[in-house]
Specification:
Largest sheet: 5 strands, parallel
CATH class of the largest domain: Alpha Beta
Strand order of the largest sheet: 2-1-3-4-5
Number of domains: 4
Distance between the termini: 54 Å
């Protein structure tokens, strides 16, 4: 069995604050010991395999933060021995090497999480919260303050360069009041990015209000956004506040903004420029202090050219643009996401454990995931509910109808051969030249995210001549 069964009483164990840090770097041991103690954990830090095994055998340890460093004896076999310690601790692996094969092997042996080095103290705290399933309540109780509400950070689980870059951008944006436009493919988790910005911002204790701009027709959406006065239309028997009014001093998240009707776009522009609006049927101007986060998977540049989206609104919303990477561009994150979704949904389906082999995990990591994180989560939920045998051992890829057989069964597609760095560099250079070095269009042409293209341009030292 790849993943250990989930213990629903684990969060209430008496040793749920006891952490063992195993790291060869004295500076890391000191920083983690001091930092986690301030967060309410009982921390022991050691620097050798012998001390780690002795401590795990003698003490009741809830979680172990273990460095993987084979030259120092800290191998995956030691990981297995620590997991099998009497207290049954959860083990979080940290390593400079974060290759997908290493992550998969650690997950196969039962690791609770994996973090690349270097890492921050906040990342270790978040990993401990996930591993112990306690959330921030341990730290909050230790400080004598109420636990602060946080949102499920499933999108932000990962060790890939794309996710690390996304975390950095989110932290920077969260310290500002700039309007933000979140872009990316469907299912990548744009909603989660918006919620994470709110969680980290100074507005975190104020409302987060989400509006789906495609869920309602134009007139209903206008009344939903801005509210209405009594008697504004037939059926308006009382005054109703709009979403902007409810989001005052907080954040409003406008999902699928690219499909908003042009008439509403003009009124939204007024709110952005003047921080005020009027309700339907009203005359009084209502002042609001609200940060606007919008999201879309549409090509807004194309919409501005064809007149379906106002250019002035586009520039107002696009004060900061965040591109959310596709799951296919961060395959090394799949094992950790699988682990997360098993923990998230396993207890609700009544599963005590779930058998996913290393081969299954490698297959999931290599799947293209056209539906991104949402598709992966749905696959895990189906497997938990029906079993893999009911649906086949691998998720069925989404393909055009032209690629299906007459029986409606997907025709087999050969696995593409990996290309060399030289060929990859040449393909990227040609794509850039075809699009006059427009990186956005070149990324679409290559079928990779904009952030992935940026990293590869820097990696290969490509430059416009």
């Amino acid at each position: 069995m790849l993943f250990a069964p989930f213990d629903s009483d684990e969060g209430g164990r008496e040793n749920d604050r006891t952490v063992l840090v195993v790291d060869t770097d004295p500076g890391v041991r000191w920083a983690l010991e001091r930092g986690l103690q301030k967060s309410g954990f009982d921390v022991t830090a050691v620097g050798s395999v012998a001390d780690a095994l002795a401590t795990a055998a003698d003490r009741n340890i809830a979680c172990i933060v273990m460095e993987l460093l084979p030259e120092a004896g800290l191998t995956q076999d030691v990981l297995t021995m620590l997991i099998e310690s009497p207290s049954g601790p959860r083990v979080i692996c940290v390593a400079v090497d974060s290759a997908p094969q290493l992550v998969i092997e650690c997950m196969r042996r039962g690791a609770a999480d994996f973090l690349p080095k270097p890492f921050s103290l906040s990342e270790i705290r978040a990993a401990l919260s996930r591993a112990l399933d306690t959330g921030p309540s341990i730290m909050a109780r230790a400080a004598g303050t109420p636990a602060k509400r946080t949102n499920d950070p499933s999108l932000l689980i990962g060790i890939s360069p794309a996710i690390q870059e996304l975390r950095t951008i989110i932290k920077q944006v969260a310290q500002t009041d700039l309007n933000c436009l979140i872009r990316g493919e469907s299912g990548t988790g744009k909603d989660m990015v918006a919620r994470e910005i709110h969680r980290l911002s100074r507005r975190s204790d104020k409302p987060f209000v989400k509006v789906n701009c495609t869920a309602l027709p134009e007139q209903l959406l206008e009344s939903e956004l801005f509210g209405y006065e009594k008697g504004a239309f037939t059926g308006a028997v009382s005054t109703k506040p709009g979403r902007f009014e409810l989001a005052n001093r907080g954040i409003i998240f406008l999902d699928e903004i690219g499909d908003m009707h042009p008439n509403l776009q003009a009124k939204l522009l007024q709110v952005i420029e003047h921080k005020e609006f009027t309700k339907l049927g009203g005359r009084r101007h209502i002042q609001v202090d609200v940060q606007i986060i919008a999201a879309t998977n549409a090509e807004l540049e194309e919409k501005t050219r064809d007149g379906s989206f106002r250019p002035d609104l586009y520039f107002r919303l696009n004060e900061v643009c965040i591109w959310v990477p596709s799951l296919s561009s961060r395959k090394e994150d799949v094992p950790l996401l699988v682990r997360h979704f098993l923990q998230k949904h396993g207890r609700f389906t009544g599963e005590g454990g779930f058998n996913i082999s290393a081969e299954d995990l490698a297959s999931l990591a290599n799947h293209p995931w056209p539906g991104n994180v949402r598709e992966l989560e749905s696959t895990i939920k189906r497997w938990l509910a029906l079993g893999k045998s009911a649906l086949g051992d691998r998720p069925a890829p989404m393909r055009p109808k032209s690629e299906r057989t007459t029986q409606g069964i997907y025709a087999p597609t050969p696995t593409p051969e990996p290309i060399s760095e030289e060929d990859d560099c040449e393909q990227i250079r040609q794509a850039l030249e075809r699009h006059q070095w427009n990186r956005r269009r070149a990324a679409d042409d290559l079928g990779i995210s904009y952030q992935t293209l940026r990293r590869r341009i820097e990696q290969y030292g490509l430059d416009r001549r």
